[in-house]
Write a structure and sequence with these properties.
With 123 residues, the protein is mainly alpha-helical. It has helices spanning 8-14, 33-41, 54-66, 70-82, and strands spanning 89-91, 113-115. Helix 3 (54-66) runs antiparallel to helix 4. The radius of gyration is 19 Å and the shape is extended.
């Protein structure tokens, strides 16, 4: 079962996966809610004019305009947004070594693109 299956969201809810709560009903908060709030308030690098030139912006607009497929966006546009960080990064690799999110009946995650950590740095 995958995200396009009609019962997918309910299956996740039935197995305790957190979803948006409407009008506060049943919301008990996240276990690490304060940490999440604190991290969201921290300043992050941005595309402000002092770090993103007019030429780079024009190149981004052109790449975005000319991208005619998801593959082109992933290979040409997203790198302009993510920058040139020296993080390990892969595309379309299935996450096989993660514990099942529910009961093993849903598809393993296969993100279009992800940044990670080198295996030797994971404890």
């Amino acid at each position: 079962m995958g995200p396009t299956h009609a019962a997918y969201q309910q299956h996740l809810i039935d197995h305790g996966v957190f979803f948006e709560v409407h009008h506060g009903e049943g919301y008990e908060g996240l276990a690490n809610q304060e940490e999440v709030k604190h991290r969201l308030l921290q300043r992050r690098p941005s595309l402000s004019p002092d770090s993103f030139s007019d030429e780079a912006f024009v190149a981004f607009i052109a790449a975005n305009y000319n991208a005619s497929s998801e593959a082109t966006v992933m290979s040409m546009v997203i790198p302009m947004i993510s920058g040139n960080a020296s993080l390990p990064s892969l595309q379309n690799i299935q996450f096989k070594d993660l514990e099942d999110l529910t009961d093993g009946s849903i598809k393993k995650a296969t993100p279009d693109l992800y940044d990670g950590a080198r295996p030797e740095s994971v404890h």
